[in-house]
Amino acid sequence: MQNDIKRVIAYSTCSQLGYMFVALGIGAYGAAIFHLFTHAFFKALLFLGAGSVIHAVSGEQDMRSMGGLRKVIPTTYWMMIIGTIALTGVGVPLTVIGTAVFFSKDAVIESAFAVTHSPAAGFAFTMLLVAALMTSFYSWRLIFMTFHGRPRASTDVMEHAHESPLVMLIPLFVLAFGALFAGVVFKEYFYGHEFAQFWKGALFLLPDNIVLEEFHNVPKWVKFSPFVAMVIGFLLAWWMYIRSPSLPGEIARSQAGLYAFLLNNGTLTNSMIFCLCVPQRRLVTSCGNRVMAA
Question: The pTM is what?
Answer without folding.
Answer: 0.85
